[in-house]
Each structure stands twice: as C-alpha cells, then as structure tokens.
Design a protein that fits this description.
- The protein is of the alpha/beta class.
- Helix content is 39%, strand content 11%.
- The protein has 15 helices and twelve strands.
- It has an eight-stranded parallel β-sheet with strand order 4-11-10-9-8-7-6-5. It has a two-stranded antiparallel ribbon with strand order 1-12.
- It is globular.
Length: 405
C-alpha cells in the first residue's frame, strides 16, 4: 500500500492523527487516488475482510483468528445484536465539523477506538505486533498488547514509540512471573492494565481442534515469558535449547486456573496505574468490579471464542452500563466491524470500543500498511456516519439515537 497521507491524513493539519476530526478525509484520498489509476490495497468493506483474509492465510492461522467456540452461536449473536438496533439520523444539526476526541483512564484518544489485544500475530504476518504497534501509533490510537505476543514487551514498546499503549494480562499462576511481567510492562511505558478474565482455560474450538492447531505448543506467542527473567529462572535450559520444557512450563502457568475476586488486591499491589477487567457480561460482576476498586471494565465475550451459546455483548451492554453509571469506565468489544457498530455501542453506554478481528485481517493483507488501511477506513466510516446521523461528537450519542429494529 502506498499511504501518501501518512498520519497527517488521519487528522486535521497541525496535530497529526490526534485532533479527532476529519478522519473522513480518507474517503476523498481514495477517490482522488483513483484518478491516477490507484485503487485501495484491498477492500474497504470491512465485513468482507474475513473471506478475503481466508484466501491469504493457511487454514491453521486463519481459523485461529476467525474461529469461535462450539457451534459459533455466540459470534453470530454478536453480529445479530448490532443488526437489532438502528441509528435514527437527524438533520440540520450543524454537524459539518466533528470532534471525535475523548479521554479514557488518562489516555487521550483521537477517537473512541482502541486496538483489542490479539495474541500470536506472527502467524498472520511475520512483523506481527510490531507492525500493529507502528500503525496504531501513527494514528494516535492505543494498542493493547497481549501477553500472548509474538514479540517482547520491550520490542513492541520500541515499535510504538510515543504512541499510547496498554498491556493485557493473561494472569500467570506463578506470582513471581506475574510481577516480573507487570514490572516490565510498566517500565516500557504501558499505562493501563487490562486483565482478561474469561479465558482462564481454552474453550472447545472445533476449527482449531480439527487441525490440531495451537500456536503456544509450538513456542509461538511465547515471546514475553521466554524473555522474562523470573520465568527463565525456573528452567534448567533456555527455550532455545529445550523448547518443549519451556512450553510445558508456560502453558499450564497461564491456562487452567480460575481466580476469585479476593485475588484482585494482588494486582493493585503490583500495578500503580488504572486496572480494567475484560470479559464482563453480567451487571453483578460489573458492580463487583466497582466494589473491588477497579478503574474500568470491558463488556466482552471474547468475540464468541469462549462460551458457545452466550449472550451477545451488545445485548448486555445497556444493563451493565446502567448498573455502574458514573462509577467506572465502560468499554466494549465483540462483533464490531463498522463505524455504525461503534456508534451503536457508544449510544448504549460504552465510553470507547475495542476493535479486534478487522485489524488482524488487515495485518494479513499487508502488514503495517494493511492495519493502517483498516484503521483509517474504520475511523473514516465512524466520522462520516457520526456526522450523517446528526452528531458532532460521540458525547452527543445516547439511547435516543437508536431504535430497535
């Protein structure tokens, strides 16, 4: 992809990518490029990216990204929940100039969008998380680095440069390893901790099982533990010398153990920034997160990858947002594909939305440039749809902006 606009094209001139306005200019750029015979590098229909990515990836990596738990009912429910709501456009609202900026837990966002944590990105593209971090930083969009990264915390931080970055924790059951990883993330400039709670063990995922495909048992997605001094101290030989022993130490350390609410103070003792709990699907759990002093929650069912037949995240969002209104930051993921999806989640109570599979498919299409194309397109769609629905900022959205289908 020849991205002539770079980060400057994402925002208004003066503060590249950080002004929160004029993301829709990417549309004009693509049309003007057509005058010179240059087409977009791949589709701008981000609901079609999955099929396109399938043509570019081997079955194992593709289904590891695209697959769901069991029958896939939860993933289908996530999409159906968005279709169950309709935006109700208003007119003559002076929405020519829009400002998408917001602040979440001390992080300034050019738009209410973050990149969700996705592990083992090297199975999609060799540069993996490094490419994603560079693309996100160029636009000022925060990236949330997965514990299951293909690259080390420090290398991803270097790729991110001055870009905002959060760290996602798959909670190891070895406290010394956990503290070591947290300390590394903090030292590398990761400001907010996102603790994934719904993936303490892997769900029944038929696509992965049919292919006997799990990257971790091959030593992929293990760069963070395999570079951690506390983890390495428990090995007789380095992972380079004895991969199997390292894998057999790590896999049961980060899967297979469900925590309890009384363990959360441990994280607070070892992380002095904001803490967000990811995987909240019930209002009572949201209330308990507030009672435990957590700074935010992510309403998420892991994109349908963990519990087959579960409620759609968007279906639960209004009730959860109402249960903790004004007491903690509410974020959302699961099933987001378009700008209008983002608007619906914001209208139903989310402060910001995490994007997952679409940027992974962009990575498959073109590495850093592919991720950038998806992000710029999604932000353009969000910007244009916000204005065309009669709003000048995300703060103007409310349930009154929607109707049930």
């Amino acid at each position: 992809m020849s991205d002539s606009g770079g980060p400057e094209a994402a925002g208004t001139a003066g503060t590249p990518g950080l002004t929160g306005g004029n993301f829709g200019a990417y549309q004009s750029e693509l049309y003007l490029n057509g005058l010179g015979g240059q087409l977009p590098p791949f589709t701008t229909d981000f609901t079609a990216l999955e099929d396109s990515a399938r043509e570019r990836l081997e079955p194992g990596p593709f289904w590891y990204v695209a697959g769901s738990a069991g029958s896939g009912a939860t993933a289908r429910a996530n999409r159906a929940a968005f279709d169950a709501w309709r935006l109700v456009p208003r007119v003559l609202r002076d929405a020519t100039v829009r400002d998408l900026r917001t602040t979440v837990l001390g992080t300034d966002l050019p738009a209410p969008v973050l990149l969700a944590p996705i592990g083992v990105q090297s199975i999609i593209h060799p540069d993996g998380e490094l490419a994603t971090a560079r693309a996100a930083a160029a636009l000022g969009v925060p990236t949330v680095l997965s514990t299951a990264s293909s690259h080390t915390i420090e290398d991803v931080a270097a790729a991110s440069g001055d870009g905002p970055r959060w760290y996602q924790l798959y909670w190891p059951n070895d406290d010394e390893v956990c503290v070591s990883i947290l300390n590394r993330a903090k030292a590398a400039g990761f400001t907010t901790l996102v603790v994934t709670l719904d993936t303490w063990t892997l769900a029944w995922r038929p696509h992965d099982l049919d292919l006997s495909y799990l990257p971790f048992v091959r030593g992929v997605g293990t760069a963070i533990p395999f570079s951690d001094p506390a983890f390495l101290a428990g090995l007789a030989k380095s992972p380079e010398e004895d991969l199997i022993s390292a894998v057999l130490r790590w896999v049961p350390m980060f899967t297979g153990t469900d925590r309890s609410w009384d363990r959360l103070p441990f994280l607070r003792d070892h992380w002095d920034g904001p803490i967000v709990l990811k995987g909240i699907q019930h209002p009572d759990d949201a209330r308990r997160a507030v009672a435990a002093g957590m700074d935010g929650i992510v309403v998420s069912n892991h994109g349908g990858r963990q519990v087959d037949g579960a409620a759609a995240s968007l279906e639960m969002l209004p009730e959860i947002a109402a249960a903790v209104a004004g007491r903690t930051e509410v974020l959302f993921d699961s099933g987001v594909r378009t700008g209008s999806d983002v608007l619906k989640a914001l209208a139903l109570g989310a402060k910001a939305v995490l994007i997952g599979r679409p940027y992974a498919y962009g990575l498959a299409h073109g590495g850093e440039d592919g991720v950038r194309h998806v992000l710029r397109g999604l932000l353009a769609d969000l910007d244009l749809t916000l204005g065309l629905s009669g709003h000048r900022s995300p703060a103007e959205l409310s349930p009154e902006s929607l109707r049930r289908a």
